[in-house]
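User: For a benchmark we're assembling, each entry needs the component sequences followed by a predicted structure for the full assembly. Here are entry 17's components. Please fill in the structure.
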Amino acid sequence: MRRILALGLLLCAPAAFAVERDFGDLVRALSDELHCRPTRIPFFGLVNLVAFVAEPAGAKHLDLAIFEHPNIDVRAEHRLLQTVQRAVGRGWSPFVTVRSRRSGQFELVMVYMRREGRDCRLLVTSIQRDEAVVVELKLNPDGLERWIADPELSARSVHGDSTN
Amino acid sequence: MKLAMIGFVCLLPMMAQDVKIPASIEKLADKASEVVDVTLDASLLQLAAKFLPANDPDTAQVKRLVSGLKGVYVRSFQFDKPGEYQASDVESIRSQLRGPNWARIVGVRKLKSGEHSEVYLRTEGGSITGLAVIAAEPKELTIVNINGPIRPEDLQELGGHFGIPKLDGESGRKNDSGKKDE
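Assistant: Structure for entry 17:
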């Protein structure tokens, strides 16, 4: 029985590690590109404890990295797009991309999705001139339904939800 | 044989999204004030279909439709001023929809506002296997490609989901108020 359990753990570990690695890889790649480190968020573990119990907006788990005041040049849009595309692993499917330059403002949102058992994971990168956010969400069916109903609005709301 | 295999592998991405976005359209992203790109391939659609609740009348129909689809692709460009894209850019899409399997079923042109909306259907062996929408306005261009069995009237059900704009069932006209209501 123990051997079966150990084998099961061994088989599941690479998949779990791959998901973690993608978030970490993306954060590291953006750190290098933006020349700044993500802001440390105290007690962030508590957020996941709440998410695990209450599943707010369908989110069961959350990883978050916020880069403050990176002072991004609008002309860097293509480079940032490529940086994110390179950093995101093959297991993720591109879902939504929003690029906006309205009224001189700059916004780039990229959302990737992958299935994980009965749930699904979203990897969201939202970059504005003075702030960049990377979020990885594990969603239950309710959370996914909201994203499917309006991918563009959901993608845009990530920046506001995570930083306000 | 190897060459045939390589050729087949190279063609796979094209088959996945049967209306290809030409380079001239891709370049519009540099001029656009806003670009929205929604990609739902077969695996994401299956996931979506599995997760949508069947007991909710609003989503049950969408769930049924989605479970048979192979891909939904939406590309939307918004511009600050008119004239940022040319008729030839739209023509590069339209020319792909003149193939033997495609037929234009709706075309609405409003001279006053400059709106031009078209709905195309792809049929194979008497069955509908795809649908494409081109919605061109002076400051906005939206291209929707749905790959899989879908009826024109199903567009109304899918409108407002997956980034597909809501369409007026009578004319195939894009319904802006519906889009903003979401």
